[in-house]
Amino acid sequence: LLASFGSRELAGLHVLVSAGPTYEDIDPVRFIGNRSSGRMGFAVAAAAVQAGATVTLIAGPVSLDTPVGVARRIDVRSAAQMHAAVLEAAAGADIYIGAAAVGDYRPLNVSAQKLKKQHGADWSLQLGENPDILASLSAQTAHPFLVGFAAETHDVASYAQDKLRRKGLDMIAANQVGEGLGFEASDNALTLYWDGGALELPRASKPELARQLIARVAERYRAVRS
Ligand code: CTP
Ligand code: CA
Q1: Helix 39-50, helix 206-225: angle, nearest 10
Q2: Residue nearest to atom 20 of ligand 1 (CA)
Q3: What is the pLDDT of residues 126-155, one digit of tens each?
């Protein structure tokens, strides 16, 4: 009940969230994926709803229920599909939060038939680079306020700040993967970076961290957009 009395700091704004992994098909039975559960992104979508936003959620392959109040959910599988869905939905969005773990590469040739094992021989797969969704948005002259995530196993701060600059983001949420945090874990810990600022959000549940992240996003959005 208390939540309904919380501040509606995103009222009137359209927030687009991407969540989950992408799957890059190799053949009809195999794919390349990653360990993202989608829980952080879904929690961010739920927190944005609680803050009064109209929320569109673009989800990779996850087994999660749509958070109550999400206006529109679009399910995708590959990075290319997520790229297309996000670009289309971003046209009407004020804020884009890229929480998805987008596959960086895809098999260049997707076999229509199941590939057969060649006994006694090594096998290699040729991969091509996927488009960067955040970088594509940031290259557009009019684009939403952009929030990225950076999941790193090492040198978290420097990699995250580099991504903030290189991708032209307004904010980045960095987290260390491992030690019971991040991928496949129920808790997370984030450090937020923006131009001229940083804020540590200590270890907490993903829903709690999502609420704190949304509060900071709303603050920064107001600071630079109004
Ligand atoms: N991202 C994206 N499109 C991609 C890859 C990543 O929009 N093709 C976004 C992610 O959703 C995330 C941010 O970029 O918000 C950082 O993703 P990450 O994988 O950490 O960064 P990369 O630039 O792919 O670098 P690397 O994987 O080498 O760390
Ligand atoms: Ca990546």
Answers
A1: 60
A2: 150
A3: 999 999 999 999 999 999 999 999 999 999
